Amino acid sequence: MDLCPLCSAPLTGRTVREASPDDPLRARRKEVRELRQCVPCRHLVWRPERDTGPWSDGGPLLPEHDYLFATLQPLPEPWAVVKDPQTRADLEAQLRTEVAGGHPLYGKKVIAVARCERCDEVVYSVEEDPGWFAQVHLTWRSTPDRPPWPWTERLLLPLTTSLLDHGH
Ligand SMILES: [Zn+2]
Ligand SMILES: [Zn+2]
Fold it and tell me: With a threshold of 0.70, does the pTM exceed it?
């Protein structure tokens, strides 16, 4: 059985293939890792692909890992997962700028998880509720907008299905 190297809990969840690591050395060696999450201790674990040995600790789970493991398929075009930490921080700061008291996202801690590559729509995960994904049409104003703007909709899960409805 596959066990967590930290807490020995069984690793029963989905496996994600990490084929393009940030680490240039691993990228050059084309080293592919399998990733799983340990739910009880909230750590990411990994081992080389096709290895059947023990798993190694990959550090605490980050918000984007939650998102990865919750999604079963890649996002439909033209949606893209927000991977760059600076872009993510900018999108989160912009939302905080635009929402005023009375907006459903006012005062909420959010994580920018995906964006449309053709318009200003961004999908945020609302930290207090793992099932709450809010699609927001950012206006890129520098001052708070009047609720209900910026317009937001709660997306149904799975995201891969609900994001298909997005047209231009
Ligand atoms: Zn664990
Ligand atoms: Zn769009």
Answer: no
